[in-house]
Amino acid sequence: MSLVGRASVIAILDTALADCMSGESRIVLIEGATGSGKSTLVDTVAERARAAGAVVLSAVASPAEQEVPLGILGQLVNSEQSFTSPDLAADSPAPSRVGAMQAFCAQLRELGTASPVVLCIDDVQHADEESLRYLQYVARHARSAPVLMVVTGAPYAEAQDPVFTTELMRQPHFRRIRLGLLSEAEVYAVLGGQHGEFRPRPELAADLHRTSGGNPLLLRALLQELHEVREQRAHRGLGKDDGARAADSAGERLPAPAPGGPFAEAVATCLHRTGPTATGLARAVALLGELASVPRITRLLGAGSSSAQRGLAALEAAGILDGLRFRHDGARSAVLDGTGPATKADLHRRAAAVLRKDGSPATAVAGHLLAASADGAPWSAGAADIEVLRDAAEDLLVSNDAPKALRLLELAHEAGADSPLRGAVRIRRAQITWRDDPVAAERQVGSLLDDLHSDRLDSEHVQPLAGLLLAQGRVADAAQLLKGSEGAGHEPGTSPLDTLLDTGVAASERLLQSARLTDATMAPLSQALRSLIASEHPERAVPWSRKLMEEAHRCQAPGWSAVFATLHAESLLRLGDLRGAHTHAAMALELLPEKNGGTFHCAPTAVLIRACSGMGRYAEASRHADQQIPQRLLSSLHGLGYLRARGLHQLAVNQPHAALADFLEIGRILESWGADRPAYLPWRTDAAEALLRLGKPRQAEQFVVQQLSLPDARRPWVRGVSLRLRALVADPKQRLATLNQSIDELHRSGDRVETARSMAELGRALEAEGSPAKGSAMIRTAWNLAKECEATTLCKEILPDAPLTPVARDRAPAGSGGANTETKLSSSEQRVATLAAQGLTNREISAKLYLTVSTVEQHLTRVYRKLQISCRGDLPLDLELGSRATV
Predict the structure, then answer these.
(1) Helix ranges, 79-155 (H)
(2) Of 381, 616, 747, 840, which cross-links 385 as Cys (Cβ 3.0–4.6 Å)?
C-alpha cells in the first residue's frame, strides 16, 4: 500500500459510506498481507460511520476462534446493544438455518430503516464457516437496504473460503481493493515525518525499505528501534546543539535489528497471523538458506506444492521474503529464534535427509546434522549420516577448518555407537587433532590402543594406528602392534625404528617431493625427515623441514608447525647450528597449547637442553633438565631423547654419575624394545664419556668396542664419535690415525661440533707426539670451528683462556693499508690462510686448492702483511673460515 494509494482507498470507502448513508447497499473487500494496514482502514471506516450516525457492527476473526460456530456473527450481534438477534443455532436442520438467516437479514434491513448499517469484518479468512453463510446471505438479499459491508482478508490465505469471495464478487455493488507494500519513496516520506524538521538521508530510507520490504508493520518496528538508538545517542551527546544533532541524524544508517527486539517481534506477529503453513515455510527457507527451492521445501515439510506456493507468495507479499531469500538476515534470525529447540532439531534432521537425497554438498548436509545435535538431545545416526559427516570433515580440511571438521567427526563418533565405521572415525580424529594439539592426539591414540587390545577395534586399523604411534615416538607399542598383525608389511626381527633409520636418502626425498602435507601424510613425512637427519646427508633435512614448517603454518595447524619446527631444530643441532636449533625448539614449545604432559614435549625440550648446554647457558638448560619426567614418558623415543639431553647436560656441569645413570637407563629400555640403534641414541659412547670422567677407561673402552661392532658403526657419524673415544682409551700409538679417521668420518656426517671436538683431541695428540706447531694450528682450527657453532662450552674446553669475543686490533699507521681481516683478505687469500691455520704445508695447500706452490707463498706473504704478522703461527684465532657451512 502506498500513501497515495491509502488516500485513494479512503476516498473509495468514503464514497461507499456516503452511498450507504443515502440508502444504497455496498460491499468492499480489502485484501492485503499481514501488517499492510487493513485493520487501520476498517477502524477508520467504523469511526467515520459512527460519526455519520450509522449503526456499526464489528467483528475480528482469529485462527483460535475459527472452529467456534457462528463466532463472527455473535461478535457482530453483540457489538450493538440496539440490535436484537434471532435465535442462532449452527447445528439446527437446514430449513431452520435458512429461516435464521432470513430473520437475521430482516433484522438488519429493519435496523437500516432507522439509520444505515455498516458491517466491519476484519481478517475474514479466519471466520468460521457458519458465519460466512450468514454474510453471503446478507450480501445477496440486502441489496436494496442501506447496508455497507466492509471485509478485510489476506491474499494467499490457506484458510480462505473461495466460495465466499466468489459470492461477494457476483454482487453488482461489490468493490475489491488490493493493498500493496510501501515503495522506497513512500518510506522516505514516512521517515521525513519521523524526522520532523530534519531532512533524512535517502540511504536511511533505502535501508528501511530493504529491510521491511515496505510492510508498514515491520517499518514501524524498525522506526521504533531507530528511535531507541537515537535516544541512546542523545543521552550520550547531551551537550550538542540542535545543528550537531541534525548532522548526526542526517548521517545515520539503520542499525542492525536487535535479537528479540521490536523488529523480531513484528516478524513473529506477521508469521502468526499469516498462518501455520506460512510459518513452517519461513522456517524451512531459513534453515535451507542458499539451497532453498520449492521442491526441497515441500519435501522437508511434507506439504503440497500448491499450498507451498501460496504460503511463499503470502510471505513475499508481507515483505518478509524476496523470492526464496529473506530480505534481511534479521528476519531470518527472528524466524529461527522463534522456533523451539525440538522443532528446530527435527527440521535440521529432515533438511539433512532432503539435501543428502538431492546430492547436495556434504558440508551442507553435515551442517544440518551438526545443528540438529546442538540442543544436546541424543540421536542415532545411520551409516549414510556417518559417511556424510566424514566426507564433510575432509572437505573442511581442504579449507583448513580443522576445528569444525573435528566437531563433525566427534558427532559421527557420538551418534554411531554401533557403527563399524566408528573405529575409522576415531583414528581420523586423532590424525586431525595433531594439527592443533599433539598432546590431545596422544591421549586419543592411547585410548585407541586400549580398544585394540580389548578387541574393540578392527585389525584394518592397525596400520594407521601404528603410524600414529611411531610419529609419537612410541616404537615399542608400534612394534608390538605390527608384530601381532598379519600382512602388515613388517619383517620379523626388525622394529619400526629400523625402518625409520634404514630408509635411504633417495626414498625419503621421493616421499618428501611427492606427498602433500595432510593429516594422513603428516606421520610419514615426519618419519622421512627423521630418516634424513640420521642419514649420511643430514643437511638435506634442513630445507625440507623448513618447507614443511612453512606449509604447516599456511595450513593454520600449530600442532604440525610444532612438529616440523622441532625436526628443523634437530636437523640444525645435528649440523652444529646451536643457536638456530635453540630458536626453533623454543618456537615449537610456544606453539603447543599444553605446555607439559605429553611425550612430544620431550622432543623440543631435549633440543633446548642440548643447545643451551653447548652454548654455555647452563641456567636455562637446568630449568628444562630439572623437570620431573613421568615414567610413562620414557615409553617413547622422545622421552629417551630427553633423558639423553639431560645426561649430556649433567656431563657439561660435571655430574658424571647422574649422567651415567641416565645413559644406562636409555640402553636398558632400548634393548628391551629390541630397537638398540646408536644412529638414533648412541648411549654407549655417551656412557663411555661419563666413565672417562669417572676415571674408568677400561669400562669405557668396552662400551666403545661394543658400539663399533654394531652395524650402525658403518655410518659416518656413529663411527666418527666412536673412533674419537676409541682413540682416548686405546693404544696411544694408534691415536693419531684413529683421530684422523674420526675427523674424516665426522666431516662426512656434517656434525661440526663433533668434528671440532675430534680436531681438538688430534691437536693435543700432535703436541704430545712432538709436533707443537701442527698441534697448535689444529687446536686453533678446532676452536674456530666450535666458536662458529657458538659452542661456548667446547671452546672453553679447547682453549680455556681464549677470548670468545673478537679482540679489537690496533689500527695500522696512516698509509700502511692496515684494516680488519674481513675487509682486507680476498677470498683466495682467506682460503689459503684458513688451510695454513689448520696446519697444512704449502704443498698440501697447493694440492687441495689446485694452485702452484709459488702462488700459495705469494698469498701467504700478502696475508702476513695485511694482518701485520710474521708467520703462520700468528694467524688469529678468530680468522673467518672459508669453508663455513651454511644452514
Answers:
(1) 94-114, 129-141
(2) 381
Q: What is the pLDDT of residues 359-369, one digit of tens each?
A: 899 999 988 88
Q: What is the pLDDT of residues 823-839, one digit of tens each?
A: 467 877 887 887 777 66
Q: What secondary structure does DSSP assign to 795-825, as a single string?
A: HHHH-TTS-SSPPPPPPPPTTS----HHHH-
Specify the DSSP element, H or E, that contains 29. Answer: strand 26-31
Q: What are phi and psi of 148, to 5 degrees?
A: -110, 120
Interval 368-392: pLDDT, tens? 888 888 766 666 667 788 888 888 9
Count CB-CB contacts under 10 A for residue 239: 6
27: phi then psi, degrees, rounded to nearest 5:
-130, 125
Q: pTM of the full predicted structure?
A: 0.69
Mean of the per-residue pLDDT values of the chain: 84
Could you tell me whether strands 321-322 and 325-326 are parallel, antiparallel, or unpaired per DSSP bridges? antiparallel
Asked if 421 contacts 413 with a C-beta cutoff of 8 angstroms, the reply is no
Give me the pLDDT at residue 617, please. Answer: 95
Angle (CA) 647-648-649 rounded to 5° is 90
Q: Which long-range contacts (CB under 8 A, 24 or more apart) does 300-304 make?
A: 300/347, 300/350, 300/351, 300/354, 303/277
Check if the beta carbon of residue 132 is closer than 8 Å to that of residue 161: yes
Q: Are 635 and 666 in contact (CB under 8 A)?
A: no
Neighbours of 157 (CB within 10 A): 23
d(CA 768, CA 43): 119
Q: Is residue 393 within 8 Å of residue 426, measured between CB atoms?
A: no
Contacts of 250 (CB under 8 A, 6+ apart): 198, 199, 200, 201
